[in-house]
């Protein structure tokens, strides 16, 4: 229950994936940003979802996170929110770690840095990828 409160309180979209890249958690901000409800995406493979975010650029960072090759990847991608507006989406890809540092999946955290948290920003920048950690 507490985790639900935390995920709902976060400004940005949070998507938690298992080791097979299937959706475990899709918070309210992800619903608002991409237009799909958690019940529609839970158990679905992230790369098979039809959302306005280009998912192919996330393939390698997600794989590297699952393999423990990196602690965090930060990407900036051009996307289209559920309202059909072009946005610049900042995406952080991190491994889902247990207290024992065992990798159990991937966490995707997203927001439109130029928007209001719901993906309404109109700012545009070049796509970039950086590895942190």
Q: What do the pLDDT scores average to?
A: 85
CATH class categorisation: Alpha Beta
The total count of strands amounts to 6
Quaternary state of this entry equals single chain
Helix content: 10-25%
Rg over CA atoms, rounded to whole Å, is 14 Å
- State the separation between the terminal residues, measured CA to CA: 31 Å
Q: Would you kindly provide a written description of the structure presented here, covering whatever features stand out?
A:
The protein is α+β, with helices and mostly antiparallel strands. It has a single domain (2-132), classed as 2-Layer Sandwich (Beta-Lactamase). Helices cover 21% and strands 33% of the residues. The chain is built from four helices and six strands. It has helices at residues 2-9, 28-34, 38-41, 59-67, and strands at 13-17, 23-26, 72-80, 86-97, 103-111, 128-132. It has a six-stranded antiparallel beta sheet. β1 and β2 form a beta hairpin. The longest helix is centred in the middle third of the chain and has 9 residues, at 59-67. It is globular. The protein starts with a helix and ends with a strand. The model is unreliable at 117-128 (pLDDT under 50).
